[in-house]
Amino acid sequence: MSWLKQFFARRHLYKDLSEEIREHLDEKIEELVASGMSKREAAAVARREFGNVTLIEEDSREIWRWPSIESFFADVRYALRTLRQSAAFTVTAIVTLSLGIGANTAIFMLLDAVRLRSLPVQNPQELAEVRITDTGHQGMGINQEYGELTRPLWQRIRDQQHAFSGVFAWSVNQRYVGRGSEMRRFKGLWVTGDFFQVLGVRPFRGRLLMPDDEGACPVTRAVVSYSYWQSELGGRDLSPTIRLIVDNELVEIIGVTPPGFFGMVVGDHFDIALPFCQPKEELSRHIFDVSVMGRLRPGWTIQRATAEMDALSPGIFEATALLDRDAHTIETYKKFKLAAYPASTGVSALRDYDRSLMLLLGIAGLVLLIACANLANLMLARASTRQREMAVRLALGASRSRLLRQLLTESLLLAATGAALGILLAQSLSRVLVWSFSTEGTEINLQIVTDWRVLLFAAGVAGLTCIVFGIVPAFRATRTEPISAMKTGGRGTTGSHERFSLQRLLVVTQISVSLVLVIGSLLFVRSFRNLMTFDPGMHEDGITVAFLGFWQSDLPRDRWASFQKELLDEIRSVPGVLSAATTTNVPLSQGSWTHGVRVGSQEGNSKFTWVSPSYFETMGIPIVRGRSFTQDDTASSPRVAVVNETFVRRYLSGVEPIGLTLRTGQEPNYPSTVYEIVGVIPDTKYNDLRGQIPPMTFAPASQFPNQGPWSNVMIHSNLAPAAIAATAKRQIAGKHRDVITEFVDFQRQIRDGLVEERLMAMLSGFFGLLAVLLAMVGLYGVISYIVAMRRNEIGIRMALGASRGDVVGIIVRQTLVLLILGVGAGIVLALAAARGAGSLLFDLRPNDPFTFAVATGVLVSIALVASLVPARRAARVDPMVALRYE
Amino acid sequence: MKNREQRDLFPGALEMMILRTLRRQPLHGYALAQHIKRTSNDLLQIEEGSLYPALQRLLKDKLVNAEWGISSTNRRVRIYKLTPAGAKHLAHEVSRFEKMLEGITRVLALGES
To answer: Tens digits of per-residue pLDDT, A765-799?
Structure first.
């Protein structure tokens, strides 16, 4: 009999069985009566000798079943029925669970997208990246984002390696497309000729770049991403007439990449991909702008590839040794080692947020734990009302494991529904998360997908929650002695003490965990506030940053410096501008420029910035000693410098700095130079609000040895940055059509750098609130329950003369005990947990006593309010009613 | 809960006794129970009901088949009959059981020899 036929034949089988057993008993009774027994007695004897009819029928039926699936479905049906009957409980449980699981899943989805998912290319697991080991190339030259190696290094790796069946280099940078004031930024992806072939990316239109497209500069062919093709080229068919002016060169668009391909940077996307080209002069050995990746040959592992790279390293670094640097730096460079690293997930700047995301996942997990404790409490309360049902079923011969299975099915059903809704919720929650990471300047392009990892995670979380809130109450519910349960059922002066203590334990856990979360959120909120109100030592508001580029004008190189001055005067003439100055490095914007310095006998590093005379005035930075720069500091006058106080402390401790000199180390385009210190400024933050203040040196813009066709201008004004930007843009475009202008609100840019802190403050604050709310609901529930159970006792006490105040006192005292235990455990836990978060805090110690005190105070007062309501209800108990109920 | 030790038979013992009884003649459930009880001289206290799960197992494995009929006392009963497969199974089980019994007996007799 096939199992399908069996399934339909089964009903018939069961009917036969029941009838057969009935006949059996009848026959027995008949015989017993015939032997002289009374009918009643005979029936009793027959049943006794037969055994438990229901159980036997069930056992017999069991034989025809395939393992327990049917009983599972029966359980599900029964659970659905019970859950429908207590709709309020069910809705509460499902809403709580879906919120909790949804929040966890959303954060996990983000982690998955940023960290775990492979690149959308062929066999991503075969990809590996070649990098310099340990700290990489720091201090060796110019570093570009995601740049790990120089192009001369890449060429030698390409020519000497055997580990990869295909190897390529790539680099990303923002450049300009179009002409003059029409110019727009694009996100460029520079690649070697076989980039697309090695990755196995197929063209969506036309063809992609091939090795032949790599050649002498300038570049003549490029491909665009699908989204760029759609938005900028209107999705037009490609033809040789479709060209873009990229970086001043006419480039033909030969193909479009498929929609799913975003490049190598997770969370970002490229607009135009261009081949590297070979310039007339030798490639620079100190510009670290490329990342080198390859597809491992079959049989080659990361270890084997690393061994090969290690062996190749001495030759490669010797052959590309830095020029124009001091002997020590060159020696350090030559000792570098290359190694292979897995690259299946690409690269991403978003991975800097890993710690925050993990922490948020932990926080969301704790919130879910609190929610589970609430549910467990509800289940316990339900268990006590269902005690009789369980007792009856045990008495009828149901085994304990059978009842357990039944109760766990209910929990499982709740958890599964919660997980399903949670996954739905996570779809939008995760998008909100991505959105809150994005800023005006950096849009994040993350593909958030519900893949098997996300589903597995959600299922895992649901399973865990189910165990947490389901198992203990289920064990409780089924550990009933049928007799005693049926005898006392719902009566008695006090409840079983043991059950109470479990509920108390749950509430204590809730209080402690929510205290941890409240302390955490307060820490993050205060840290964020510290950052927002932090004084970096210079103006923040009223400052507009202008970026001016004039590489498309045909000015000769020796006119660049004077043209920069003209542009600065142009901006100064804009109505509303109080002052303006150029700088080679915009502060607090992550950019950094370092030179080695020698001061007397001391050697070290200093940040270097070349600024025009009114820079310190524009930025509101006072000169504490000496003087600022003037128009008399020219290209031909003696080299002068202004240093900050950290510089003085580090290199000139106790010596009068004015008049002393410092010497920079030699670097390409930056010959070793002696500067005379003419002024000192107080410490101001350099490129990041959070970092330590480094030694800083400022020199006059007129003495900048490497002026390019561009300029940064800091503008101080009492008008809104947007208004200044609009006027300045118009004015410059009117006079110099081929100058590109970009404006940024300085303060806005600084705040955009705080997204991580903002997100932590927002989310941890939200979760903290949620935690308090949930814990209070839990506390309220338990106190109410205790009050209900002690109704009789309270009635007796009042009958014996206790006042209402006494009764409230009894209940509040109980709350206090729970609170003290919970708060104590919470503070210990928070101290331990905060240490891990210490590095994420700004200007705040993780064990900040004020934060701890405020959080505890808030929690305790809310908790007391939550318990006062049921306490007052207890005080209104009418002794007569309570006793009569008995 | 009385006589728990006496009732515990080894797995398959009840099935073997059922098959052996049915080899003699087809019987219905009640008669089968009475017959096993009588012939065992009440030494084996078998809960009458426990016969039914055993019978279902035999039915499922097609060692017996069942048909509704009328008993000698004019009662609608389900009569179980041994199938050829059942007969074969019984022979096999009995020989296995005898070997086992012999083994146990030898071990138990060890002390006295």
So the answer is: 999 988 888 888 888 887 887 777 777 788 888 88
Do the Cβ atoms of A164 and A292 come closer than 8 Å? no
A50 to chain B: which residues are within 8 Å by CB?
47-49
CA of A31, closest CA in chain B: separation in Å? Answer: 11
| CA proximity to A626, closest of A578, A682, A585 | A682
* Chain CA centroid to CA A870, Å: 40
Chain A residues within an 8 Å CB radius of B60: 63-64
Whole-angstrom Cα distance, residue A52 to residue A58?
10
Cβ contact B53–A17 (<8 Å): no
Question: Closest Cα to residue A677, out of A659, A665, A651?
Answer: A659
Task: State whether the Cα torsion A701-A702-A705-A708 is positive or negative.
Answer: positive
Contact pairs from chain A to chain B, CB under 8 Å? 63
Instruction: Please report which helix (H) or strand (E) contains residue A681, including its range.
Output: strand A674-681
CA distance B43 to chain A (A): 15
Q: Which chain A residues touch B50 with a CB distance below 8 Å?
A: 51, 56
Q: Which chain A residues contact residue B68 at CB under 8 A? A: 16
Phi and psi dihedrals of A52, rounded to 5?
-75, 105
Do A131 and A282 contact (CB within 8 A), yes or no?
no
Distance from C-alpha of A264 to C-alpha of B107, rounded to nearest angstrom: 77
Q: Is B75 close to A50, i.e. CB distance below 8 A?
A: no
For residue B2, the model assigns a pLDDT of 35
CB atoms under 10 Å from CB of A118, counted, come to 14
> What's the angle, vertex CA A611, arms to CA A710 and CA A687, rounded to 5?
85
Q: Is A287 left (phi over 0), alpha (psi -120 to 50) or beta?
A: beta
Contact A217, A251 (CB under 8 A): no
Measured between CB atoms, does B3 come within 8 Å of chain A?
Answer: no
Contact: A62, B60; criterion CB under 8 Å: no
Of A175, A268, A174, A274, the closest CA to residue A224 belongs to: A274
Q: Which candidate, A108, A711, A641, places its Cα nearest to that of A360?
A: A108
Sign of the dihedral defined by the CA atoms of residues A154, A158, A159, A160, in that order: positive
Q: Are A380 and A47 contacting, i.e. CB atoms less than 8 angstroms apart?
A: no
Interatomic CA distance for residues B79 and B30, integer angstroms:
10
pLDDT class for A490, splitting at 50, 70, 90?
A: very low
pLDDT of residue A382: 78
Q: Which of B48, B51, B61 to mutate to test the interface with A (most CBs of A within 10 A)?
A: B48
- pLDDT at residue A7 greater than cutoff 70: no
pLDDT, one tens digit per residue, over A210-231 is 999 998 988 999 999 999 999 9
- The complex's ipTM works out to 0.83
How many residues are there in chain A? 886
Name residues 20-39 of chain A within 8 A of B (Cβ): 20-21, 23-24, 26-28, 30
Q: d(Cα A324, Cα A138) in Å, to the nearest integer?
A: 17
CB contact under 8 A, B75 and A24: no
CB contact under 8 A, A23 and B77: yes
